[in-house]
Amino acid sequence: MDDATITARVKTVLLNDTQVVATQIDVATVAGVVTISGSVRSKAEEARAIELARTVTGVRDVKSALQISPGS
User: Fold this and answer.
1) Which fold has domain 3-68?
2) Cβ contacts of residue 51 below 8 Å, gap of 6+?
3) Is the full-model pTM beyond 0.85?
């Protein structure tokens, strides 16, 4: 599976989850390694976003560059 497809699938799974504000999260994929960046409201939301990204077929690893910003 190519990186663009993985990125699209990760974005979709994040958007469909009620616990994550996906509009604040950017997704990039290189060689199956997904990097998520942007802002989340809590450490729990960050963990949920990472967990969701890992469920996508083709993802080899997930790296988080998310910033915790309670007001976001």
Assistant:
1) Histidine-containing Protein; Chain: A; (3.30.1340)
2) none
3) yes
